[in-house]
Amino acid sequence: MHPATTPANLDPRNDPVPALIALGFAYFILGTGSLAVVGLVQPMAASLGVTPAAVANLVTAFALAFAVTAPLAQVLFGRYPRRSLLLTGLSIMSLAALAGALATSYWVLLVSRIAAGMGAAMVGPMASAIGAGLVPPERQGRALAIVFGGMTLAVVLAVPMAAWLGVLIGWRAVLVLLVVLGAVAAGGVLWKVHDRSRGVPVDLRALFGVVVHRQAGFSIATTLLQMAAMFATYALITPYLSERMAVGSGGMVAVLLSYGVGGIAGNLLAGGLTDRLGADRTVLASLAVLAATFVALWVLPASLVLALPLFVIWSTAGTLFQAPQQKRLVDIDPSRRSLLLATNASALYLGMSLGAFLAGVVHHSAGSAALPVASLILMALAIASFLSSRTRS
């Protein structure tokens, strides 16, 4: 692939931060749209007459729709202006949320979640691709951290806010609120993001070429395995805390809040460390700390005092991974950054689904104590994949 080049559409007179914040808010809508259902499981199940497990499958449906659509959208629409695709994705997400709010059956809601995942597949990759193109290469780490910061805030806020609002105003009203927020995000993009660049036309051979290219393929596999490792424990974090760490309901809230604090800290550190140390060193540090954290979660005795700092370290290291990983992909071939970032985003959501699936299997067969072991094995594979990605083809 091609060496790094100077991003297009740069104007030294323009401050890129407002545009980056608008792109970050679009990412916040993506994250909130994908995770809010987790906080609405009980009211949705009661309203639609289905089991909580069936409602949880709505998250999987969103993730799989995202994973399939993200790279295919680049093949079908890659030649169109990136901002137009981003706005289209936000519009689809808003319409899907409205359809979900009006759903009279579980199956209609399921279809709306699939549609939302397809729309989100245009939002995340395009937001990152536009953000990377607004600044010179030496500032892309900070830029991508600002953009992905929206996702970090969504991870911290979406589930507890959705759960609270679901009780206060009902789950349908929460989905209507997502429609309104989606419109606000689209308005922010129209107002502040003036990028008119088009993606490079992509065909299936180009998509295949990304997967088999040594650097790109192993890098994308690293994202999948890292996210699978995270979710192999996080997907069942509540039973893990109660069964393995002996944490009660009050302590559980404190631990989950500490996880959120760590996520924010990781995102704040990511941009500066990436630009200062380089993307490769920052990613390797993230993976190494995550592996050590899963070892600690496996072997240390049950204790709320130990759980609190461990969860801060875990989420800090996990979030630290995202911005430098996207920077590494942009550097592989800046002209095809949309395709690379879309394929990486697809791997991210596939990793979520794989990790959640493995968590259920491991918990059923070996109990909560074995969850960090599964995460550790996946993390070892992620480190091996990362090291393989550093060998140029």
Largest sheet: none
Low-confidence stretches are 1-8
Element pattern in H and E? HHHHHHHHHHHHHHHH
Structural class: mainly alpha
Mean pLDDT: 84
Quantity of strands, as a count: 0
Assembly state (oligomeric): single chain
**Percent of residues in helical segments?**
over 70%
Radius of gyration: 20 Å
Described by the principal axes of the CA atoms, the overall outline is globular
Strand fraction equals under 5%
Our measurement of the CA-to-CA distance between the termini, rounded to an integer number of angstroms, reads 9 Å
Topology:
Layout: H1 17-39, H2 41-48, H3 52-77, H4 82-101, H5 106-133, H6 140-169, H7 171-192, H8 204-212, H9 214-234, H10 237-243, H11 249-277, H12 279-299, H13 304-320, H14 322-332, H15 337-366, H16 371-389
Put the structure in a nutshell:
Helix content is 82%, strand content 0%. By secondary structure, it is mainly α.
Q: If you had to describe this structure to a student in words, what would you say it looks like?
A:
The chain is an all-alpha fold. It has helices spanning 17-39, 41-48, 52-77, 82-101, 106-133, 140-169, 171-192, 204-212, 214-234, 237-243, 249-277, 279-299, 304-320, 322-332, 337-366, 371-389. The chain starts with 16 loop residues before the first helix and ends with a helix.
